[in-house]
């Protein structure tokens, strides 16, 4: 019984990374939008870096989800 509770607690703690990824994505796009409104001419040159940052942040959230599922459904 204790092992099942520990699995649920561990999966919940691992899932915190998903919330962190959401905050990170919001920060990335919010700062891009603020910078694009200040200097619209430079916005196009920074769009590639925007999507790289989005992809890396989203990958972090997916890894956290994967770890949470591995804790829940492994063994």
On the 0 to 100 scale, the average pLDDT is 92
CATH class: Mainly Alpha
> In the CATH classification, which architecture applies?
Up-down Bundle
Helical/strand content category: mainly alpha
Strand content: under 5%
CATH fold descriptor = F1FO ATP Synthase
Count of discrete domains: 1
- Give the proportion of residues in helices: over 70%
Compute the number of strand runs.
0
The biggest beta sheet reads: none
Question: What gyration radius follows from the Cα positions, in whole Å?
Answer: 17 Å
Low-pLDDT residue spans: none
Folded structure, characterized:
This protein is mainly α and 75 residues long. The chain has one domain: F1FO ATP Synthase, CATH 1.20.20.10. The protein has 3 helices and no strands. Helix 2 runs antiparallel to helix 3. The longest helix has 34 residues. It is elongated. The mean pLDDT is 92.
């Amino acid at each position: 019984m204790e092992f099942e509770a520990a699995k649920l607690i561990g999966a919940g703690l691992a899932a915190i990374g998903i919330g962190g990824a959401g905050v990170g994505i919001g920060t990335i796009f919010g700062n891009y939008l603020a910078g694009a409104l200040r200097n619209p001419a430079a916005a196009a040159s920074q769009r590639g870096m925007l999507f790289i940052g989005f992809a890396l942040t989203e990958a972090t959230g997916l890894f956290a989800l994967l770890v949470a599922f591995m804790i829940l459904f492994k063994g």
